[in-house]
Amino acid sequence: xxxxxxxxxxxxxxxxxxxxxxxxxxxxxxxxxxxxxxxxxxxxxxxxxxxxxxxxxxxxxxxxxxxxxxxxxxxxxxxxxxxxxxxxxxxxxxxxxxxxxxxxxxxxxxxxxxxxxxxxxxxxxxxxxxxxxxxxxxxxxxxxxxxxxxxxxxxxxxxxxxxxxxxxxxxxxxxxxxxxxxxxxxxxxxxxxxxxxxxxxxxxxxxxxxxxxxxxxxxxxxxxxxxxxxxxxxxxxxxxxxxxxxxxxxxxxxxxxxxxxxxxxxxxxxxxxxxxxxxxxxxxxxxxxxxxxxxxxxxxxxxxxxxxxxxxxxxxxxxxxxxxxxxxxxxxxxxxxxxxxxxxxxxxxxxxxxxxxxxxxxxxxxxxxxxxxxxxxxxxxxxxxxxxxxxxxxxxxxxxxxxxxxxxxxxxxxxxxxxxxxxxxxxxxxxxxxxxxxxxxxxxxxxxxxxxxxxxxxxxxxxxxxxxxxxxxxxxxxxxxxxxxxxxxxxxxxxxxxxxxxxxxxxxxxxxxxxxxxxxxxxxxxxxxxxxxxxxxxxxxxxxxxxxxx
Length: 550
Ligand code: F6P
What we know:
By secondary structure, the chain is an alpha/beta fold.
């Protein structure tokens, strides 16, 4: 892949953005009455309004040219066909095969991966059906009421987010719990609320070596055996989801109770694999299939639609524009459906672990362009009463994706319209801002004048001109959620391709893990730590002293 900053389209975009940067978004709307019609797109049940970006009709062709010059389409085809585009790990990238419900062969190393995918999914379905129906019984013969997923990162965030987002479709008897952190508090508080005889633990780890997950899993296992006292009962209460059968067996889970997946499924792209087992248990196999179908529809759209009408491509290119040409350091994800409150955290891993890199595919340090933005967010309506102040009037701009559904089936009147009024109002406020003359007129109407008015005036001005995307779906359903997630997966892919990155490795998480192993030993040693810098030694020794009460 070429260095994007050396491409003709990049240079053209730079000149173009310098030309239009002086125009406020208000001007852009005033200059083009058809802006909404021109800059909206709909596919797979998702409607995207991108007219509130700092673009003109000349901008988008330049961005599409950049995508073409970068070879995005060829790389996309290589990914879908099972080529090993994850070059640092020599792996294919085939989360799309997991939702290939049409079952067309997908070849890796000369063999079709579809039979194995289908076989695992069939086992998941059978298992989920027996648990949901009550046929699967715990060691005392009681039915399962609680499911605890023990996993972290991609083995936690996707299932947690999807179960919350689609809780309306959840099984009425099954309570879902998620344990990820190693602080002990989280797992302990879950264990305090459940009954070992009616609980199913899912130990979810692609590698089955992740310290946090294994520590939590061992704690759960000890707690279970302390209560039950019979190792044979484990088979009825512990299942594993992993690519590592040896480690699963060593942990004490029968491989018959293991649901496998493959090294070509990245952790943050694994929701569609057996990692989605909690989702299938909670929502049922049909809804899980609908989630896959929604994602598959987006896959097809991504492959088939021309770049100009391609949702992931358009979203990715706008992100490139905001990151590389307007230099916005972060992207806020603002969902207005409370059920999507964990969607920003999910996207955070998806985007930041994929494109948070500065070494390109050729092993060269990237010096002439910025890569992945900081992705963050929470429920949008809560954000309005917390951090939106800075976004409206702070010293740095932030790009924002607003997400909402049109229908809110469980919302009693007047919740839906109030929520959506706020949703639309915020996108308008970020675009328009409030000018000095508007504030002056408003204050005058309120009866203010003279010094009092002049004093208050500057505080009430909003610059506006903040770029936002608005994504609307009809209702939050398994299909629409599947399409929404796949939209962002492909967006991240397109951006990684243009930035010339391998979006599918994550070496940046290794150093902390290595250092933690050493420090763990030092924390239990009797002598003080001396091998680190003064701060780290000091902190370790301070901790040890205080822990021992010295
Ligand atoms: O440390 C980061 C990471 O490797 C993520 O990429 C991954 O999703 C997470 O840890 C959990 O890994 P595993 O599923 O192997 O336990």
